[in-house]
Amino acid sequence: MTVRSTDEALDWRAEGNARLVQNVRNILRTWQGEAAFNRPMGVNREALGKPIDVAARYLAQQVAENIAVYEPDVTVRAVNAYEDGLGRLCIEADIEF
Fold first, then answer.
1. Which of 26, 58, 35, 57 is nearest to 45 (CA)?
2. Which letter does DSSP use for residue 8 in this model?
3. DSSP state, 95?
4. Furthest-apart CA pair in the chain: how many Å?
5. Half-sphere exposure of 87 (CA within 13 A, CB side)
6. What string of H, E and C letters represents the secondary structure of 28-88?
7. Which end of the chain has a smaller Cβ tally under 10 Å, C or N?
8. CB-CB neighbours of 63 under 10 Å
9. pTM
């Protein structure tokens, strides 16, 4: 299953695999320091301002590590980061339960 860092509303009632997908999506969107009670969670901002190919490799590694730590019920098969054509960096994770 592929999870993307798209803007979807938070579902407070999500359960089971839907909750795992939501948790992974939150990890894809979180920069280090944003989670008030868990400052180390998220990807490091060092990727910002780098060429897209460099940022993509760095973010892919960071995201895979974060998912392994913060959502251990999910196995990461691959992580990709890419520009969406509007200059925004998007991240997607191919996961399995």
1. 58
2. -
3. E
4. 39
5. 1
6. HHCECCCCCCCCCCCECHHHCCCCHHHHHHHHHHHHHHHHHHHCCCCEEEEEEEEECCCCC
7. C
8. 24
9. 0.85
Sole residue written with tokens 């019920």: 73
| Distance, CA of 95 to CA of 89 (rounded, Å) | 20
Digit-coded pLDDT (tens) for 1-14: 999 987 788 888 99
Whole-number average pLDDT of the chain: 88
**Parallel, antiparallel or unpaired: strands 2-4 and 75-83:** unpaired
**Residue 60 and residue 79 in contact, taking contact as beta carbons nearer than 8 Å:** yes
DSSP bridge partners of 93: 3, 79
Distance of CA 44 to the CA centre of its chain: 12
How far apart are the C-alpha atoms of 6 and 29, rounded to whole Å? 8
